[in-house]
Task: inverse folding
């Protein structure tokens, strides 16, 4: 039973882990930690929601805990915090579809990991895990405004990095 | 493509990537899910088996000893016309010749015992007992004739009976005189015992039972008990509980795992046997060593935790690991007993647990205790 569960959801958890961890080895270790939490709390799953959603939440929390234990979230300086800037307009700096299609998963991960740690986490939580800024603020112990600002900075940085990356690819 | 579409494409790009677990990863997970260290398991298992084997061996030895004793005790009455060996047969006569006026059938032991107690044990009439007869036929054997029947004042000649004699044990001829008396009393007592004590893994322990005691020699005795024990187990450990996980996706609580002082309590009942061997140091003091083996009647411990440490959990849904006690609990014990009356004695004992009592992965919590109690013997 545990083995089947492990093989069935390994990829799901690994996809989350690689977005937060700097290396594949770290991601594998965090997936390992996540599965241990899942197995030890399996009896507490109340069947009131999606099982996949439940284990994704556990995995996300495991990643955050691991990052926190490394003080990755604590000593990172936040420069130029301007809380009045919220999310970018959806039409801001559009990206060409044909360029996007040239990116691989490794490129996407590379882009993510270029981001500073807090920005990466907020971007991951908001875009991939679809948490609200209120939940992100509670999770990371920051204010909602700070969460908005981090997301804004993350998008801005991604655009810049993405532009340089696609410029290199198109030149090739 | 706007930001939302770009992010969705980025998301899809990463979601499409598949990761296949390697077998070594699963093996590592399997090991983590079963954390029993092989070295410790090897250590625990033989300890329990050794204790069980010691108890079985001790019980078998005691039972075997009693069995042998029971076989030796029933003695046949003197057989008419029996034949005995010279060494055995000459002893009464030798004693009689050395103590003129003393019957050859009255040994020094019985003679002195009768004299000391002032009792007049009915002695067999010398004229009616078969008299040992010297070897007249040159066979090297002494014969004992059948009880003489008074028939017209004429006694049957012993020599005539010698031809009808059959070899028997000397002890059968003189069962109460020359039977080995060195082993002392073979007395069996039954009684009750009650104890109260302090276990290492709890608050109090109460123990009541019945016991049987057998005097092996004048100084050694064997004792076995059947007891019901009630132990108030109180065990604490610090556990890390993760933040509450919400099934409905509301994203409640994402703090780190927090330490919680979890207490486990339970009134655990067990029934067991406790054989031991004891030695009388003085008339009233005795010491005993033995083992015991208890079987738990209930095993689950109830968790408790301070309400202030529970975060968003209640006690019912908090991810506190369940704890329990082992089904079997083996131990060795030493006991000092003081007899304060013919039937009543007080004792104190220390028990060292040999097997794991509280089941916690990777840790050995044994059940040792210190008890005081009393024994009441029936029929003394």
Result:
């Amino acid at each position: 039973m545990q083995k089947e569960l492990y093989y069935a959801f390994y990829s799901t958890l690994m996809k989350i882990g690689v977005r937060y961890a700097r290396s594949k080895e770290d991601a594998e270790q965090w997936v390992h930690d996540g599965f241990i939490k899942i197995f030890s709390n399996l009896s507490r799953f109340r069947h009131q929601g999606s099982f996949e959603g439940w284990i994704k939440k556990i995995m996300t929390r495991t990643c955050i805990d691991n990052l926190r234990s490394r003080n990755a979230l604590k000593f990172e300086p936040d420069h130029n915090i301007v809380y009045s800037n919220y999310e970018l307009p959806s039409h801001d700096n559009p990206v060409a579809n044909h360029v996007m299609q040239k990116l691989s998963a490794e490129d996407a991960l590379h882009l993510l990991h270029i981001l500073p740690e807090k920005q990466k986490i907020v971007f991951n939580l908001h875009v991939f895990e679809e948490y609200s800024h209120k939940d992100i603020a509670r999770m990371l112990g920051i204010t909602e405004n700070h969460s908005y600002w981090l997301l804004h900075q993350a998008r801005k940085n991604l655009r810049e990095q993405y532009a340089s990356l696609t410029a290199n690819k198109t030149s090739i | 493509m706007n930001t939302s579409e770009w992010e969705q494409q980025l998301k899809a790009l990463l979601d499409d990537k598949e990761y296949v677990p390697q077998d070594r990863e699963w093996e590592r997970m399997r090991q983590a899910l079963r954390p029993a260290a092989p070295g410790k398991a090897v250590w625990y298992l033989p300890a329990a088996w050794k204790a069980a084997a010691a108890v079985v061996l001790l019980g078998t030895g005691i039972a075997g000893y009693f069995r042998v004793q029971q076989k030796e005790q029933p003695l046949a009455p003197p057989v008419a016309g029996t034949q005995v060996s010279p060494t055995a047969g000459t002893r009464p006569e030798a004693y009689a010749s050395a103590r003129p006026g003393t019957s050859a059938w009255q040994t020094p032991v019985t003679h002195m015992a009768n004299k000391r107690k002032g009792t007049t044990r009915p002695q067999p009439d010398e004229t009616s007992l078969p008299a040992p007869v010297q070897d007249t036929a040159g066979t090297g054997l002494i014969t004992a004739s059948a009880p003489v029947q008074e028939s017209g004042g004429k006694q049957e000649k012993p020599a005539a009976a010698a031809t009808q004699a059959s070899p028997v044990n000397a002890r059968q001829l003189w069962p109460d005189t020359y039977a080995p008396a060195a082993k002392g009393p073979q007395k069996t007592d039954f009684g009750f015992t009650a104890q109260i004590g302090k276990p290492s893994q709890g608050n109090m322990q109460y123990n009541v039972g019945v016991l049987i005691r057998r005097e092996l020699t004048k100084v050694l005795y064997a004792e076995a008990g059947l007891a019901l024990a009630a132990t108030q187990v109180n065990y604490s450990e610090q556990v890390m509980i993760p933040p509450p996980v919400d099934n409905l996706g509301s994203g409640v609580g994402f703090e780190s795992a927090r330490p919680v002082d979890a207490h486990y309590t339970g009134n655990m009942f067990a029934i067991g046997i406790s054989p031991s061997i004891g030695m009388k140091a003085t008339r009233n003091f005795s010491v005993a060593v033995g083992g015991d083996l208890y079987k738990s009647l209930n095993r689950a411990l109830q968790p408790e935790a301070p309400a202030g440490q529970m975060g968003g959990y209640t006690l019912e849904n908090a991810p506190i690991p369940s704890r329990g006690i082992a089904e079997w609990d083996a131990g060795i014990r030493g006991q000092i007993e003081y007899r304060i009356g013919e039937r009543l004695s007080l004792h104190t004992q220390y028990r060292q647990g040999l097997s794991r009592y509280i089941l916690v992965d990777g840790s050995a919590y044994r059940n040792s205790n210190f008890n005081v109690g009393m024994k009441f013997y029936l029929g003394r």
